[in-house]
Design goal:
The complex is a heterodimer of chains A (373) and B (326). Chain A is of the alpha/beta class and 373 residues long. A five-stranded parallel β-sheet of chain A has the order 1-2-3-7-6, with helices on both faces. In chain A, strands 4-5 form a two-stranded antiparallel sheet. In chain A, helix 7 links the parallel strand 2 and strand 3. In chain A, helix 1 packs parallel to helix 12, helix 2 packs parallel to helix 9 and helix 6 runs parallel beside helix 7. Chain A is globular and about 75 Å long. Helix content of chain B is 37%, strand content 21%. Classes of the chains: A alpha/beta (373), B alpha/beta (326). Chains A and B meet through helix 6, helix 7 and helix 13 of A and helix 3, helix 4 and helix 5 of B. Chain B: Its cofactor is thiamine diphosphate. Chain B: Keywords: Oxidoreductase, Thiamine pyrophosphate. Chain B: This is Alpha-ketoacid dehydrogenase subunit beta. Chain B: GO terms for molecular function: magnesium ion binding; oxidoreductase activity.
Chain lengths: 373, 326
């Protein structure tokens, strides 16, 4: 058996199952905000770069908090919070170039932010006005996928398309620790490996698949799964935005230059509930959350900026004010989202004319018309 | 005119589609060097290369899932599912993703993916190699579901399916793969639209509705019935979703008696949908209830029993007799 300690590192692995040394965790910024070096994953960030990362972290947390509030007020049917996973998402999202393509789950609000998707568009499916409200091609950011792990195969197929186009681009696909048990995720590993597809598998191991802890999904650290499929796997401190950026950047570059896939396990923590419909007090202890709060992804960047005198109080105040503005704006525009029209049900089911759609639309229109008279 | 078997007609159709559009890809298990277990893709990898005719790992969900990804990148993948009974590992990708993603995207995404499925029994195969799973897919909005019954339709319909911007589930009657016919491959003016049903034998007394492997059986039954003095019309539906209701209802109104024939189990089969629609639209024209002939509501039996399970000429004629008993 292996045990994941709340403190982060993997503690014991039964040698009889073939696992050996305790896992390494790539970290470039400690929870206390101290910069540390790593021989393979260094990164050169200007003060402006760090301030910009900090701003993104704060703004996406604010978007998330506002959405949580909108759900509580009945304006969203449900919301899947990213609280605690901001660094994993901003770090990896900022590593992408415009030509790269990202395939999210339904929790990648931070990556969506990095891809330029207007946050209000994320709310559509949670409010129930659509199933996905943005054009994936416009942002190179695919629609949210709700069925766990399905998108990993889409991402590999897309990467195979990049190969056939002879393009200099890579694909990144997001999924969680629970998803690693899905057949599709394992099939996607196989496909990516045998076709040497330009893809980065970015697993945010937030320790919980709703109520099931990691040990219900795996007996070895997740990043080590990659070796069985024939490509490198690496564990990164998922609450360290510097490390997530550095590790993802390197893996994407490897993918773009024909070196095939990489599995990145971003070791992080889901600080909130699975969704607004979940009650984590039923299955996990409060002390675990308290321990992870000490490793908050935003606080460490703030400490770093302070300690290194790369930002002053005026900067932090300005970011907070911007966040407040963003939240208020998001709330206003959420409330203003129009409900779809009844006949919209039939739109976009098929691209080409379809007799049954025409028939049912006409019948329903006539039925509705009956009430108007 | 060229004489082609149904499998060769599909092969020629795919070859034509690949020549016409460099984005068309073939993918599946053993479709490359081997040319598929039924040789439907024979020679295509040799001529179009491994990048366009892709031997995939042995995982059906992976085939359809990666085909979706390739379609998102602008390709037009044609997936081969080796046998009907192997489509279920891919059912999740087909039903939750392929069928629904275009609507999810509010029209921003198109998924021109064809999933080819050799279907039906009658070849003495082991379990999972003789099934007719079409109703699972006609029930799924977002998919188009078609089935060819003869070489000429195989040749035209596969090209039309590949050209469609919607996903198409393409059922091929495996026991008819070796049937031959003359096909004019030099012109397209004779092609019926993909979703048009066809009266393949006109008649006045009773209508047989069939698709895929049962069309030939119905034609044979119609010939036999003629000797009893009954004029039997046979309609090849060709497309199950969408259904060409005009042709079906016109025939039902003219003959007043309808028998639906398919290999799939009768219970909750596509025949139930046809019976309900015909009853609703043609109630006052009907001389008898719409009757159904199909497989029993059992799993497909071992092959030494399949001749009892599959509708044949006598079972169809028995139903025709019953239709005249009202």
């Amino acid at each position: 058996m292996c045990h994941e300690a709340a403190e982060g590192g993997l503690v014991t692995v039964d040698a009889s199952h073939g696992a050996d040394a305790p896992p390494e965790l790539v970290q470039l910024l400690t929870p206390e905000g101290e910069r540390v070096e790593h021989p393979d994953y260094d990164i050169d960030l200007t003060p402006e770069d760090v301030r910009s990362l900090y701003r993104d972290l704060v703004l996406v947390r604010r978007v998330d908090l506002e959405a949580v509030a909108l759900q509580r007020h009945g304006e969203l049917g449900i919301w899947a919070s990213l609280l605690g996973q901001e660094a994993a998402q901003i770090g990896s999202g900022r590593a992408l170039t415009d030509a790269d393509m990202a395939f999210p789950t339904y929790r990648e609000h931070g990556v969506a932010w990095c891809r330029g998707v207007d946050p209000v568009k994320l709310l559509g499916l949670f409010r129930g006005v659509n199933h996905g409200g943005w054009d994936p091609k416009e942002h190179n950011f695919h629609l949210y996928t709700i069925v766990i792990g399905s998108q990993t195969l889409h991402a590999v197929g897309y990467a195979m398309g990049i190969q056939r186009d002879d393009a200099s681009a890579a694909t990144i696909v997001y999924f969680g620790d629970g998803a690693t048990s899905q057949g599709d995720v394992n099939e996607s590993f196989i496909w990516a490996s045998v076709f040497n597809a330009p893809i980065v598998f970015f697993c945010q191991n937030n320790q919980w698949a709703i109520s099931e802890p990691l040990e219900k999904q795996t007996r070895i650290p997740l990043y080590r799964r990659a070796s069985g499929f024939g490509f490198p796997g690496i564990r990164v401190d998922g609450n360290d935005v510097f490390a997530c950026l550095a590790v993802t950047r390197k893996a994407l570059e490897a993918a773009r230059t024909g070196q095939g896939p990489t599995l990145i396990e971003a070791f992080t923590y889901r600080m909130g509930a699975h969704t607004s419909a979940d009650d984590p007090t039923r299955y996990r202890v409060a002390s675990e959350l308290e321990a992870w709060k000490l490793k908050d992804p935003i606080e460490r960047v703030k400490s770093y900026l302070f300690k290194n005198e790369q930002a002053d109080q005026a900067f932090f105040d300005a970011v907070d004010a911007e966040a407040d503005q963003l939240g208020a704006d998001l709330r206003r525009r959420c409330l203003a989202m129009p409900d779809p029209e009844p006949l919209d049900i039939f739109d976009h089911v098929y691209r080409e004319p379809h007799a049954l759609m025409d028939q049912e639309r006409a019948q329903f229109a006539a039925y509705l018309e009956g009430f108007a008279q | 005119m060229t004489v082609l078997s149904l499998s060769k007609a599909l092969n020629e159709g795919m070859r034509k589609a690949m020549e016409d559009d460099p984005k068309v890809l073939i993918m599946g298990e053993d479709v490359g060097k081997l040319g598929g277990v039924f040789r439907v893709t024979d020679g295509l990898q040799k001529d179009f290369g491994e990048d366009r005719v892709i031997d995939t790992p042995l995982a059906e969900s992976g085939i359809v899932g990666t085909a979706i990804g390739l379609a998102l990148r602008g390709y037009r993948p044609v997936c081969e599912i080796q046998f009907d009974g192997f489509i279920f590992p891919a059912a999740d990708q087909i039903i939750t993703q392929l069928a629904k993603m275009p609507m999810r995207s509010l029209g921003a995404i198109k998924l021109p993916v064809v999933v080819r499925v050799p279907c039906g029994g009658g070849i003495g195969a082991v379990e999972h190699h003789s099934e007719s799973p079409e109703a699972y897919f006609t029930h799924t909005a977002g998919l188009r579901v078609v089935s060819c019954s003869n070489p000429a339709d195989a040749y035209t319909m596969i090209q039309q399916a590949i050209r469609s911007d919607d996903p198409v589930i393409f059922f091929e009657p495996k026991r008819r793969y070796w049937e031959k016919a003359d096909i004019d491959t030099s012109a397209t003016d004779w092609w019926p639209p993909l979703h048009a049903a066809k009266v393949v034998r006109p008649g006045t007394d009773v209508t047989l509705l069939a698709y895929g492997p049962m069309v030939k059986t119905c034609l044979e039954a119609a010939t036999a019935a003629e000797e009893d003095g009954r004029s039997v019309e046979v309609v090849d539906l060709r497309s199950l979703n969408p259904l060409d209701e005009a042709v079906v209802m016109d025939s039902a109104r003219r003959t007043g008696r309808v028998v639906v024939v398919h290999e799939a189990p009768v219970n909750s089969g596509f025949g139930a949908e046809l019976a309900a629609r015909i009853t609703e639209r043609c109630f006052y024209h009907l001389e008898s209830p719409v009757l159904r002939v199909g497989g029993f509501s059992t799993p497909y039996p071992p092959s030494r029993l399949e001749e009892h399970y599959l509708p044949d000429l006598d079972r169809v004629l028995d139903a025709v007799d019953r239709a005249f008993g009202y």
